[in-house]
Fold this protein.
Amino acid sequence: MSSEAINTGLLTTIGYGDRPWEEFVLRLHRNRIRYLIDVRSQARSRQPEFNSDALEILLAKEEIKYVYMGDSLGGKPRDPSCYVEGKIDYLRCQERPVFKAGLARLQSSVAGGHRSALMCSELDPEKCHRSKMIGEALIKDGVELSHIDRDGSLISQRDVIARLTKGQGELFGQAFTSVGRYEVAPPDGIY
């Protein structure tokens, strides 16, 4: 493997779902990930190893740095302006300055040659804001994004969206965009 290949920036995503810790870490190592960026709005899990404090310690043992960015890139922000009739509006989320600043950090990471994975709990990328909100915003900005799929293979953002839309990403000449409203209630205590 050439030193150039090692220094090539990569931005991918991964969900842990019901994966055992060992399998999760193996997927990160296979993709030579050095930074795990947590994009959950709340960095907690029913699986204790995926809580933020445990992740930081466990990942350090694997020589992977833990970075929390759920406050800027999370799929369930506390900002009430991101919700319409109780449903999350990803387009509104993408317009927030804090979201744009989060995207800029990701772009800097790739430009700096870092190998990073955005992490959320949802195992399937097409079911998560990693693809629907963050991935679509990155693609619009010309940043390539891949996803570590359920089986461990890397798939492109375009392929994830094709799976999500069942191949109907372009209807009547309009490309798929981060469709506005999803059945997600705002976090407790907003209203």
